[in-house]
Amino acid sequence: MGRSKAKQHRKHLQHIRRRTAPGTAPGTLAVDPTASLSTIRVMAYSANEFFEEEHFSLQKLPELQNRFAVVWIDITGLGSRELMEDLTQRLKLHPLAMEDVVNVHQRSKADPYEDYLFIVARMLDDENTLMSEQISMFVKQGLVVSFQERPGDCWDPVRQRMRQARGRVRVCGADFLCYMLLDAIIDSYFPVVDRISEMIDEADDEILHDPDPLHIQKVHDIRSQLLSIRRSIRPHREMLNELIRDDHPLIQAETRVFFRDCYDHVIQVMDLVDTYRELTADLRDFYMSSVSNKMNEVMKVLTIISTIFIPLSFIAGIYGMNFDTDSPWNMPELGWRYGYPIVLSGMALLGFGLLFAFYRRKWL
Length: 364
Fold this sequence. Notes:
This protein is α+β, with helices and mostly antiparallel strands. Helix content is 56%, strand content 13%. It is built from 10 helices and 7 strands. The chain has helices spanning 2-15, 61-67, 81-90, 95-102, 156-164, 174-187, 189-209, 213-245, 253-319, 339-360; strands spanning 39-45, 50-54, 70-76, 109-112, 117-124, 132-140, 143-148. The chain has a 7-stranded mixed sheet, with helices on both faces. Helix 8 (213-245) runs antiparallel to helix 9 (253-319). The radius of gyration is 34 Å and the shape is rod-shaped. The chain starts with a helix and ends with a helix.
């Protein structure tokens, strides 16, 4: 299973390589031909009104912006070049930012522009933690536009809060919506890290009771997952630090307090990941120590067996001297008709019995 995941990870890394050729003009939209077509979902709200629609048309956007305080456009799929160009023109987005949207190999970052913020975050794949998905967001006054590579995200609780008008979401601006989306992405790391913690405890018990080469492979897989999570979560610290530190007019002072809480969550995830990586290193040492102790036990038993057979070999040596059988004080077994086959059969049974005992003890 570990080799299969590693192979999938290599394929994923090949898939996210930059698709623009060297020397291509900056801002060129190199849309992935294998990406799914884009679908638009919109949610708009004010203190007392709420609107939601799937398969939204951008032609209705000015009407929504005039009617509602905040509009959230969520685009899933990056395979529609026409849509990307239309958004660039309608919202007057910088071509370099749109180029980063379709080239999904970006580190998490926050780039300020004149009248909007461009934010990149990474969301873990819940089924395969070796892969992560790039989430891009444009934050303007009263507008948030998010881009996802594929369907499925961690934002359903945010959508429910918006529908039910729970908390501060319906009375705050686009900056608070941006915070909630980023906070949901960061918080989605915690269940994955908790699941890895359970895997570490399970591997610890398995190595303690019966160390096996498969267990060290499992520990290696866990360590690879932790390394992938660390690569995904670490740039969020710099990105959130920029949102907190830089005095951008789109980020209100009261919202920066919430971004600081999100920053604390990133630090917690990083601390947990670093702790679990140290635990996996301890597990590898524990495995080697367990294997060494097991080998010492085997050598102890073999030493006991050798000690037992030393006197038996001494007796067999005496019988091998072949004294004359006429004397009543010499070896009567030498005169048996089937003595030789009986001795050979006894030796064979003894040898096979020892092999079977070694096999049952998993020494072979």
